[in-house]
Write a structure and sequence with these properties.
With about 750 residues, this protein is of the alpha+beta class. It contains 20 helices and 28 strands. Strand 19 and strand 20 (about 480-485) form a beta hairpin.
């Protein structure tokens, strides 16, 4: 089919985006709306003695200024912690309240302290600046190791020693014994740097309240309107979830950061109920640097054992991770349930153990960022394997091939309890090496003009599609219009295009007939889990397949009656029900018109993950006199099970590579260790990658169909960000290896590279 799955069908949503006709939260307005501003903590740690709002309340246009005392008086609760685990000792992890506004103490720079509402945005901001805070400064800790030190200042009484969680996967004693028995042990110590998410559209929220019905409406950029409603409303307001409708229009980027509830989303609802008028809040870019959840931020030591034949024997990992100054919804998920189970990567490692300690620190809360734990796992094992190959003196591809899980052993259960269903890792790696002209690199290196050239290989695997359900509804109206309702939320990925393609293929219809609707809890779908963990096509696609099938079943029954034949006699193709051997037929659109419309509902559940994997090869040139790195070639071969749309797929991979290289080369979130003040709080100081930092990417697939998903697909949205950091760092280390440099921590900024070169030269 011309527009069917597997075809490079152009994105249907792009026209409105490039012509400025997209509809984002800030484009939506309501009669009588008010404007809100947040008073944020100017220090990272301190006792909050008082909040003087008297001057602000007296200012012209100001209708209200709320503090934690006001919220407590009205019974407003705290934000939820979705992932709660036990300490390795069996004790429950502490759950300090994540209140909407600071009460008693402030624990990170930018923490909300008061909420101002006025008739204009300017007036609200002016009044926010008039609120006086009485804060006694306290010492700060911004790194996990410092926070867990015996004399560290304590953030929460409920968490002695700032320990949010001590968690373990596997048996440390068994790993130690296996390492001791190994012929060789390779060790790395590395940092996964803290990342500011920097979505194109900053966070926002509009709250509305209908007093007569007692009904709330929240309009907000999110990664799933149902997720925000279900996570936040009952816990914060103590009311049934059906009292809140959440609407998410177009969204300009999320990357995990917009999957969770934030104080401002609840505060606009609270203020709307108190004042009886719509209340809107829009983050500034400066606020985003301070108050959005941030990503990564952990440090690890890892040991890899090898036997006399260079086969891996054991892997042991010790990780210190930051929770930030408040425990976010999924704050403990990334360094525990997400990353460590994927620690073995694609390798046969019989013994694996990971010990994780998560600390409260005086900086922004940590939560999911593209890949959410899997990039950290891939970075760690791929840096270890590369270092092992260098120490042994064999090719990095040869050591990988020797230890990769072969396809004939699929499904394969790893030492961490994860079962890979499919994959041919050696084949994918060799295909990538061919695409990258790995064999021709020595000649390119020899032709260098004074720069130091290096090539880096990394192989990633990730688990996508977290267990859960997703619903869909497909409708063909009597007038022939087709509407698809799904619960996953696009934040720029191109969901509309792929869902249109899937529906067009299933129903044999022109894509122009089809409209995709998402982002409204009032839409009639049986379940919705939102867009996280590359699950939209894995789960949403499965739900849409079921919904289209249900609609076709109804249409087939109706068509049989119209054609006066037994339903089993009908063929269906290209939108037509036909009676074989005759010219009798009826179109599915005509059937819908005859019966007053058709609909099908699907509720799809998948409890087993999918495992996309692939090889990244990065080629760099390093100027030793300046430390500047040029990424000259970049090649990826991925196994995504099945390609639904190569254009959309390549766009996702390209974006992920850019974010991965950004973390590895330029992005560095810096807090002053003495004061907790942010030193990289704008794009003048925080190094997002620019277009000229990146080359054109060569992206292709070598697919092995997934056996655990009915469409045969493996999630693809996060893959680029997982494979890129280790490939890039491995390439730079290769370029600098003749100087004796074996490791550099991300980001590999020019100053950091230059300093390493100077130190190596003596």
């Amino acid at each position: 089919m011309k527009f069917g799955l597997g075809q490079p069908f152009r994105r249907v949503e792009d026209l409105r985006f490039i012509t400025g006709t997209g509809r984002f939260t800030d484009d939506i307005h309501y009669e009588g709306e008010l404007f809100a501003a947040v008073v944020r903590a100017p220090v990272a740690h301190g006792v909050l003695n008082g909040v003087d709002v008297s001057a602000a309340r007296e200012m012209e246009e100001v209708l209200a200024v709320y503090t934690a005392d006001d919220l407590a008086a009205d019974g407003i609760g705290a934000l939820p912690v979705i992932i709660v685990l036990d300490h390795v000792s069996g004790e429950k992890m502490p759950l300090p309240a994540h209140t909407l506004l600071a009460a008693g103490k402030v624990r990170y720079l930018g923490e909300p302290v008061a909420f101002v509402v006025a008739t204009s945005a300017r007036a609200a901001q002016d009044a926010a600046e008039a609120v006086m805070l009485d804060i006694d400064d306290l010492p700060t800790v911004v790194e996990p190791a410092s926070a867990l030190a015996p004399d560290a200042p304590e953030l929460f009484e409920e968490a002695p020693g700032n320990l949010a969680l001590h968690w373990r996967l596997g048996e440390i004693d068994a790993a130690d014994a296996a390492l001791k028995a190994s012929a060789r042990v390779v060790e790395v110590e590395l940092i996964n740097n803290r990342i500011v998410v920097s979505s194109m559209e900053p966070r926002n929220a509009i709250g509305l309240y209908e007093a007569e019905a007692g009904q709330f409406t929240l309009v907000t950029g999110s990664q799933g309107s149902h997720m925000i409603r279900d996570f936040m409303f009952e816990g914060v307001f103590g009311l049934p979830a059906d009292r809140l409708r959440v609407i998410t229009p177009d969204v300009g980027g999320g990357f995990g950061m917009k999957a969770i509830p934030y104080p401002e989303q609840a505060l606009v609802l609270y203020a709307a109920r108190k004042l009886g008028r719509p209340v809107r809040w829009q983050s500034s870019r400066a606020e985003a640097f301070l108050s959005d959840t941030q990503g990564r931020d952990n440090a690890s030591k890892a040991w890899l054992g090898l036997d006399a034949e260079n086969r891996f024997t054991a892997l042991k990992v010790e990780t210190l991770a930051s929770a930030g100054g408040a425990l976010s919804a999924f704050g403990v998920y990334c360094p525990t349930l997400s990353g460590p189970p994927m620690a073995p990567g694609v390798y046969k490692i019989p013994v694996v153990a990971t010990d994780v300690r998560i600390a409260y620190t005086n900086n922004a809360p940590i939560d999911a960022y593209r890949g959410a734990g899997r990039p950290e796992a891939a970075y760690l094992i791929e840096r270890l394997v590369d270092k092992a190959a260098r120490e042994i003196g064999i090719g990095p591809d040869a050591l990988r091939a020797l230890n990769m899980i072969p396809p004939e052993e699929m499904p394969h259960r790893t030492a961490t309890g994860v079962t890979y269903d499919s994959g041919d890792f050696v084949r994918v790696m060799h295909r990538a090496m061919e695409e990258a002209d790995w064999a021709g690199f020595p000649a390119r290196r020899a032709a260098s003009d004074g720069t130091l050239r290096g090539i880096g290989l990394a192989y990633y695997i990730e688990r996508t599609g977290v267990p859960g359900k997703e619903g869909a509804r497909v409708e063909i109206a009597a007038d022939g219009a087709v509407t698809v309702h799904v619960g996953t939320q696009s934040t720029g990925q191109g969901h509309e295009t792929t869902y249109v393609q899937m529906t067009a293929e299933a129903l044999g219809l022109d894509p122009a007939r089809i409209t995709v609707k998402t982002g409204d809890t009032a839409h009639p779908i049986p379940s919705a889990g939102g867009t996280v963990a590359s699950r939209s096509m894995v789960h949403g696609g499965g739900a849409l397949k079921l919904a289209a099938g249900a609609l076709l079943a109804k249409a087939s029954q109706a068509a049989a009656k119209l054609l006066e034949v037994d339903e089993r006699e009908l063929d269906f193709d290209e939108g037509l029900f036909r009676v074989p051997g005759t010219n009798r037929h009826v179109g599915i659109v005509d059937v819908a018109a005859k019966v007053g419309g058709l609909e099908g509902v699907g509720d799809f559940e998948q409890m087993i993950g999918t495992f996309p994997n692939g090889a990244h090869i990065c080629e760099v040139a390093v100027d030793p006199e300046t430390g500047l790195i040029a990424v000259e070639r970049y090649t990826v071969v991925d196994d995504f099970g099945r390609t639904l749309n190569p254009l959309v797929l390549s766009g996702q991979v390209h974006g992920g590579i850019a974010q991965g290289i950004g973390q590895a080369m330029t992005e560095r979130t810096v807090y002053d260790p003495e004061t907790g003040q942010m030193l990289s709080g704008s794009f003048m100081d925080y190094g997002l990658p620019r277009a000229d930092d990146l080359p054109f990417f060569s992206v292709t697939t070598q697919n092995t169909p997934c056996t655990t998903n009915p469409l045969g697909i493996k999630g693809a949205g996060e893959a680029g960000a997982i494979g890129a950091p280790p490939a890039f760092v491995n390439a730079v280390v290769d370029a600098l290896s003749d100087l004796g440099i074996t490791h550099l921590d991300m980001p590999l900024t020019p100053s950091r590279v230059w300093e390493a070169v100077q130190a190596a030269r003596g």
